[in-house]
Specification:
8 strands, four-stranded mixed β-sheet, single chain, globular
Length: 105
């Protein structure tokens, strides 16, 4: 992770921060966004708390990927992509686990 600001001005690295091989005491929410089986590399993934409030955002990676390090609990991943796409997926994050969220738009 270089820490550089992405070309769109967002401070988060495209796809989110790298995940260590052992997530240890962290809860990770990650996934990919696809359209007709192909990666959607343009857009954003947002993490919303149980009350629907914005917590974090990352631009999608070249492979349509995103990753968040979250507190354990119930979350919503909101994908915003070209063409007016605004899709929500519920997810539960657990300490020491990776919660996979695959989003087809």
């Amino acid at each position: 992770m270089s820490g550089a600001v992405s070309a769109d001005g967002c401070g988060a690295p495209a796809g989110g921060a790298a995940r260590p091989a052992d997530v240890g005491n962290q809860a990770v929410v990650e996934g990919h966004v696809t359209r007709d089986g192909e990666a959607v590399p343009v857009g954003y993934a947002r993490l919303l708390n149980e009350g629907g409030e914005f917590v974090a955002e990352v631009p999608l990676g070249a492979d349509g990927g995103f990753r968040f390090f979250a507190a354990p609990g119930s979350w919503t991943v909101r994908v915003l992509a070209p063409g007016g796409v605004n899709t929500d997926r519920p997810v539960t994050a657990e300490t020491g686990q990776v919660a996979a969220v695959e989003v087809s738009v």
